[in-house]
């Protein structure tokens, strides 16, 4: 009887803990509320199955408990039950995966009016690049990275000369405008993650990964690295500030372009 009680309490306790849990998500600051919807669908499906399985175990322990003279019936196969369980599992798994495919498609389908913002990761620092007056980013590659050219811009590409470079500083983005995030790594795997934006993407050396989002409220948010990338991984934090348009412009005018950085002869300090 104690086992039955423990099982029922386990099921009930899990549901109560889930409802009262302090480890819930942070208030959202982007357009990706669909990501939360997919999580809630997964919670409901896995939660229902978990409670049903544990309660079924409790029922079996109670119903088929030992009684003198009772004998177990031998039933090696039950076609109907196997079909039911296989079909039920398939429906549950499909219901968890299908919404994710829809949301993923939206997550990587960048609207035409999104502003490109490049994020460059390295052990253990976040740097950023914004387009200059021409509205486009110049070509860059890791082999061109040097002390004077920390993001590896291709100096033959005129489009990059007016690019705004922020090495190891804060990224600012204007509120309400879609942003096309282009993610590069100059050394190992990293992962750009801002919990409030519900946005997360691996950064792979030699590739440019991307997603887009629209910040929906102003504020200061922490960038985390979500891929174990070496001894300094847990200190690999950055900051993204979502500004009103006027504040954003004021900030942008304070930043140095690639040409100004090269002319000054020294790279920005990283602290
Ligand atoms: Cu990292």
Helix-strand sequence: HHHEEEEEEEEEEHH
Strand order of the largest sheet: 3-2-1-5-8
The total count of helices amounts to 5
**Which percent range fits the helix content?**
25-40%
| CATH homolog superfamily of the largest domain | Cupredoxins -  blue copper proteins
Percent strand: 15-25%
Low-confidence stretches: none
Q: Give the biggest beta sheet.
A: 5 strands, mixed
CATH architecture of the largest domain: Sandwich
Number of discrete domains: 2
Radius of gyration of CA atoms, rounded to a whole number: 26 Å
Structural class: alpha+beta
CATH topology of the largest domain: the name is: Immunoglobulin-like
* Terminal Cα span: 62 Å
How would you state the average pLDDT, rounded?
89
Ions, cofactors and other ligands present here are:
copper (II) ion
Assign the CATH class of the largest domain: Mainly Beta
The total strand number stands at 10
Describe this structure in a few short sentences:
The protein has 271 residues and is an alpha+beta fold.
Task: Please give a structural write-up.
The protein has 271 residues and is α+β, with helices and mostly antiparallel strands. The protein folds into two domains: 92 residues, no CATH class; 150 residues, Immunoglobulin-like (Sandwich), CATH 2.60.40. Helices cover 35% and strands 21% of the residues. It contains five helices and ten strands; from the N terminus they run αααββββββββββαα. It has a five-stranded mixed beta sheet, with no helix packed on it. Strands 4-10-9-6-7 form a five-stranded mixed beta sheet. β6 and β7 form a beta hairpin. The chain starts with a helix and ends in a 7-residue tail after the last helix. The model has no long low-confidence stretch (mean pLDDT 89). The structure holds copper (II) ion (CU). Copper (II) ion binds next to loops.
């Amino acid at each position: 009887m104690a086992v039955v009680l423990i099982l029922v309490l386990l099921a009930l306790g899990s549901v109560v803990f889930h409802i009262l849990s302090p480890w819930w998500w942070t208030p959202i600051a982007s357009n990706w509320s669909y990501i939360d919807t997919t999580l809630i669908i997964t919670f409901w499906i896995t939660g229902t199955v978990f409670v049903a399985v544990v309660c079924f175990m409790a029922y079996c322990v109670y119903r088929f408990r030992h009684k003198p003279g009772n004998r177990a019936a031998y039933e090696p196969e039950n076609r109907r039950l196997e079909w039911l369980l296989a079909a039920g599992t398939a429906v549950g798994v499909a219901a968890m995966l299908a919404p994710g495919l829809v949301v993923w498609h939206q997550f990587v389908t960048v609207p035409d009016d999104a502003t490109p913002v490049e994020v460059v990761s390295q052990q253990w620092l976040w740097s950023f690049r914004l387009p200059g007056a021409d509205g486009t980013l110049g070509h860059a590659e890791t082999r061109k990275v040097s002390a004077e050219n920390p993001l590896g811009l291709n100096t033959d590409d005129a489009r990059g000369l007016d690019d705004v470079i922020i090495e190891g500083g804060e990224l600012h983005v204007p509120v309400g405008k879609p942003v096309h995030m282009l993610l590069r790594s100059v050394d190992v795997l990293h992962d750009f993650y801002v919990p409030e934006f519900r946005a997360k993407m691996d950064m792979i050396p030699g590739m440019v990964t991307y997603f887009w989002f629209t910040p929906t409220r102003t504020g200061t948010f922490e960038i985390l690295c979500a891929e174990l990338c070496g001894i300094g991984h847990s200190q690999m934090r950055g900051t993204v500030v979502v500004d009103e348009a006027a504040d954003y412009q004021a900030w942008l005018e304070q930043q140095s372009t690639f040409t100004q950085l090269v002319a000054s002869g020294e790279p920005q300090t990283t602290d």
